[in-house]
């Protein structure tokens, strides 16, 4: 009996030791797993654009071509749904900005591939394609190829009322020298550009007026801009309550128009304007532009102040601009002693 009890005690002790060892082992394994989890870094390669960029930069740092941009372009050629195409284009845009050497190694065929996405039925794909073309336009050798899509971009801007698309398309156009063959299309979309300028979306307005300011320097487009119809409250764009970024750009636009209409080349022709045209709103007999400009001379932002003064100077003596360096006060456009 005593032997049996002794054996049972020994078995209980052994079970306890095994149980204790098993528990300790489990705790140790759990500790190792937690420690490994803390030490491990997130994988460099994933579908997110940030991880893609991190991988590409890491490889470029070590003097190796990441191949990520080429992989993305190749995947764009495959049949994808709209969401996948949009995400791929977004990733391509990031890679172009981050990996200059790999972006420069791309070809005109790659640009054509991205440009073909402008025909996609989904607006988000169009927007991402515009952003990708904008990224590629920073590389000189691709600008001529991207210019081929200018007419299509203008068509999208003028036929689709989407603020994000307007911003992306106008940013692309503002980053390109627009060739003469685009001018006929520009004339056709001038009313749409004016509508965007008079919309309530500041970022789109800024991009639209920047483009219009550049076009105002083209002799064959100046009249089309000045004769373009605008809303009766067009001068609200010059109110001091507008954001400074927009005010500065519309003042640059006004200065360009003032200088253009005062040039000998433009004054050589007798032009006729619509009653509700840009010309009548800014330079007509009943225009209140002078009042707005005088209020902006004391604007809190210095850039706006200076640009308002430049417009005032350009308006002082339009008939003599380019003929003599200064004008008598009596020739001022500011009536009633203004």
From TrEMBL:
Membrane-spanning ranges: 12-31
Domain Armadillo repeat-containing: 67-263
Record's keyword terms, sorted: Membrane, Transmembrane, Transmembrane helix
Record GO cellular component, one term: nucleus
Gene3D superfamilies: Leucine-rich Repeat Variant
Domain of life: Eukaryota
Keyword Membrane: yes
Protein's name in the database: Armadillo repeat containing 12
Organism lineage string: Eukaryota, Metazoa, Chordata, Craniata, Vertebrata
Encoding gene per record: ARMC12
